[in-house]
Each structure stands twice: as C-alpha cells, then as structure tokens.
Amino acid sequence: MHPSRFLLATTALLATCVQNVHSAVVFAHYMLGNINADHVAQDIRDAKLAGIDGFSLNIGDPSQPFVLPVVTSLFAAAQAAGTFHLHISMDLYASGDAAGGHPGLYNALLKQFMGHPNYFHMNAAPYVTTFSDGGLQNTEWFNWKVSIGTMYFCPNFDNTTGYTTGADGWWDYWGPIVDCVFSWDAAWPVRPGPGNQGSASQGSDEIDVAVMTAATKRGKAYNMPLSTLQYKDSYGTNIYRPGDLTLVKRMENILRLQPQFVTIISWNDGPESHYIGNIWPEQNTDAEPARYVSAGRRWNHSGLRPLIKDFILAYAAGLPYTGSASLPALGPASVEGAMWYRTVTAQSTCPPSTHPDNAAAGGEVVNWAIVVGTGFTDVSVRVTSGPSSTTFAISGPGFHYASVQKNPGQQKIEVLSKGAVIGLGQGGRCVSALCPDGIYNMNDVVVGIGSPIVAPPVIACDDRPIHCQSAYVRWKALLKSWNAFS
Ligand SMILES: *[C@@H]1O[C@H](CO)[C@@H](O)[C@H](O)[C@H]1NC(C)=O
Ligand SMILES: *[C@@H]1O[C@H](CO)[C@@H](O)[C@H](O)[C@H]1NC(C)=O
C-alpha cells in the first residue's frame, strides 16, 4: 500500500471515532482587499454587533502585496474586539495558479497566523476552508495537510463528482481528508444550463440535507451557506440567481437542520451583490461593479443585519424549530426587519445586452421579513408599492415574511399594532420602469425597518413616473409588450 493511502485509511478509521460537539458558529465570508486598518476594525465591530462570530477570510492570490498588511490588521482588530475569530479561506479558483491553484501557496500565511489567539479553532485545531477544490486529487490534498500539521479542515469541494448527493463514492474518496464539509452553491437556486449548481428553488435545502446526512453518518460536521442573492455584471460575467425569499427560507431551514457551522455569503463581496457589510471605496475601484454597488447609501445592505442578528441568536440557542416563535425579537417592545427589492422591472427599458443570464428568475416583487416582540398584539404589515397597498395580518410575535407585487414608484413598509405604526421602512430608491443605471441592475435595494421617529425621509424618484415619460418611451414599452405576445 502506498504510504499516503495507508495514512488515508488510518485517518478514516480514527475520524469515525470522533464525536462532534454541538457548536453553532456563524462566520461571514470576507473578501480580502486593500482595506485600510480603520475600516477593517469597523467591519469587525459591525459584524460583532450583528452577532457574527468571525470572518472567513477569502484570499485569492496570497502573494499580492496588500495581503499580509491587511491580514495583520484584521487579526489586531479581532484581538482588540475580544471574542471575534478569523480563519483562512483559500480561494484556489482565484489564486493565480495556472493549474487551478494549490494550497501550498498559502503555507507561509497559515503558519504565521494559525497560532494567533484570534485564529478560529475547532476541537483545538485551527479551522481552514476553501473556495473550490483546485482540481487536485485526494492524495495531493492529503500530502499538503501533512505538510501543515494539525488542522480542522472544512473545505468547499462542492464542484466534485457526487458531492451534492452525499454519494458513498465521494465519501470513500474525500472523507478521510475532511473534518467537515461546506457547500457553497447550495445558497442560491440553480441557474438553468449544463454543469450549473444550486438549490432546486428559493431557499430549498435538498443539497444540504443530502450532504449533512452523509457527513453526520461519518461523524463529520456541516457548514451551511446563507446568502441573499447573486447578481454579478462584471469581469466577463453577467448572471443572476435570486434573491427574493431565499435568505429567509434558508434561515428557517438552518434552524430546522442545526448544522454545526453557518457561513454568510458574504460580508463584503460587492461585485456579487450579496454583501451585508460595508463596501469601502479603497477596496475596489473598478468601474464595472461601481455601476451597481457603491459606497453610497443607495446600495447599502446593512438594513438586513438586525434580522440576521435575531436569526443568529436563535441558531446559537440550538432550540428545535417550531415555527415563527422560534425566532424571537431582541426584546418584547422590539421590531426588527427589512424590505428588499430590485429597482428594475420586467418592463424596464434597459439595453437587452445588459440583462444577466437568468434575469427572468425570481418575482416582480417587494420582499419583507420582520421579527416582532412579544409585547405587541393585533399586528399587521402594510406594504405600499407605487400606487397600491397590501395588508398582511400577523398571527403572533416572532418571525414573519412574504412578498407582494411590485409597482414602479415609491416603496414603503409599515408595521402596525392596533392601528398604530410601530415600525417603518422607507427612503429606499424607487422602482423604475425606465433604466436609470443604463444596465439591467438586479442588485437589491434594502430598506431597514426602524422606529417611525427615526426613519429616513422619502427620497424623490430619480426618474419620472410612467405617465410623464415621453411618447417614445411609452411606444417602446408598448412595442415590447406586443412582441411578448407574438
Ligand atoms: C468546476 O469544475 C469544472 C470542471 O472540472 C471546472 O471547469 C471549473 O473551473 C470548476 N469550478 C470551480 C469553481 O472550481
Ligand atoms: C449604511 O447604513 C447604516 C445604517 O443606517 C449606516 O450606519 C452606514 O453608515 C451606511 N453606510 C453608508 C456607506 O452609507
């Protein structure tokens, strides 16, 4: 027997003897960029406030000159914050190696930081994850692990044959190398087309169930991804995966499945639109993503964080999911939540070449989710989208969500108790049937729900309502709807 085969077989035997402890740890995926030290510290403070336990530091090419200083300032800020932990996520796909990347490129960085008091450890071993398997064989991964020493390895190998169904063959081949597995694409619904991966529908968990069942059977842990949407129109890619209620449905499914780890994708990936954290101007100065993400208020997704905090507290408590009441609000007199929507509509007059692949996926909807404190009775939610309002009666305290037909114009959400407004969300960008950004911009506008006293003012729509449009634009829209019928 080849020595590394022998080692593989021995670790396989040992691994089945190790029990997993209930951990419930939430990471947020953090794109390492040239972010200054003040902003790095702000990111850690904000993430901690949202209940996040640590960042999974996505590092592409580790030889970039900014990597070492930024990782150093992240660890310093984590230490200053006290309990915040970091670990390295080797982005082999972006690591710049022509063969698809090799984990050996990260050895120096790992050796420098794995012993840091704020490096995340599981079962007393430093936690390491990946984006992609790098196209390597199991023996290559095994030999690399041996070269590093003890680690808790929870890679994202979801692009390998048999992974998403939890196949025995997958576990025979990869099982001895992993302590835990992490699915990435399961966070979003699959895009049509050969080779594409993802869940069957918004927020559904069939991949997670299959993989987690197979992992649990072998004494291994599972890291379940949680994300809002994926919209990327830059770097030669233009794709869309909703979106809409994906985030909240996966929250419920995580509470049902109770995986050992959750990774929020992402804290700050601007170009993919699924950030919930800060987008700092120094991190990315490329013109393409700036069309749909910028440091300004318009594309600020921080309104989702109080809802995410409620979710994390419920998940950390490890209670079985029993419906809306298993996600309590921060206090009896508290209402957390948000409304989110795309500002383009199916009628928007954007150049067809700017429509992402899968642009028709998802609904023409305004989505909302709230968590209501136990102190409120007779609660309802009123969503006003353009000229029409829809009212939802809420069955009781806890977690509720829905979506409603979207119309061009202003968007507003009110939470009422006995007819009085207790929560208000407004001031987000208008929905438009024109094309204010010049591209079919499918990033979400997120409007947090807060006290009506501190809600931001309504801002004027930055294009004209439909009845004021020129005869030409109306004629074009009419032509488009005719074409749709022919
Ligand atoms: C997934 O696998 C295919 C086929 O081996 C490869 O072309 C692609 O680059 C891989 N993607 C990632 C993210 O690893
Ligand atoms: C995003 O919104 C939050 C909450 O209102 C605010 O604290 C933060 O400064 C905003 N960020 C930007 C870049 O506007």
UniProtKB/TrEMBL annotation:
GO molecular function, one term: glucan endo-1,3-alpha-glucosidase activity
Keyword tags: Hydrolase, Signal
Superkingdom assignment: Eukaryota
Signal peptide range: 1-23
Record's protein name: Glycoside hydrolase
Natural source organism: Mycena albidolilacea
